[in-house]
Amino acid sequence: MPPNNFFDKVQHLVVEQELTTLLFINPTIEKMPLPIRRFDDPFLPFGKAVINATGDLVCGYMFNFVDYLALGAAGAVALERTIAYAGNNHLTILHGAFSHINYIRFLDVTAFNADAITIIPEITKNTSSVSQQVITVDGQLSGIYNTETKRIDVGLDHTTNVQINVAGDDVLYAGFGEDFSEVLRNRVGEFNARHH
Predict the structure, then answer these.
(1) Is the pTM of this model over 0.85?
(2) Which of 141, 102, 137, 96 lies closest to 118, judged by CA?
C-alpha cells in the first residue's frame, strides 16, 4: 500500500527510491505540444500525458494554481483530476504562493486533495522580495521551497534533511511534436543526472 502522508511519501520516494526530482506543471496552451493543443480543454490531457511519461522518473509534481485557473472552472476541474491522476504514488504540491494559512483548506479531500501547498512567509520591512516559500501539510511547516535555487528542503527528523530539485519549463516543454513524451522523458533523465 502506498504511503499516504507527505513525510511518508518523502521517505519512500526521495530517501528509499532516490527520486529527487519534482516536476513543476504550469499548463500554458501556447507552449503545449501540438497533439495536446487539439483538445478543447487541453489541461487534463496534458497533465495525464506528463504523468504517464515521467511517473517512474520523479518523486512528484508541483501544480501551478494560477495557470490552471486560466481556463476558469474547466481549469479547476483539470487541476483536481490531474492531482487525483498522480495518485498516492507521487508527492502532489499545489503552488500558488498563497498568502495565508487558511488556504490549507485546498488540501481537503473535498477540494484539490494535494499533499501540500506553498505559503509565502510574512513579508517584513527588511525584505525586498520573497525568495522562499514554505510548504505546509495539515497546517504544519514541512519544508522550504527556495524559488531562486528551485529546491525544496524537507526535514524528516532532527538528523535527516532531504533536498528535492524542482524541474521547470525547460524540462516540461522540451518537446513540441508527436514525440513530446519521449523528449520529456529524456529531458527529465538528463535533469536527474545533473542533480543527483
Answers:
(1) yes
(2) 96
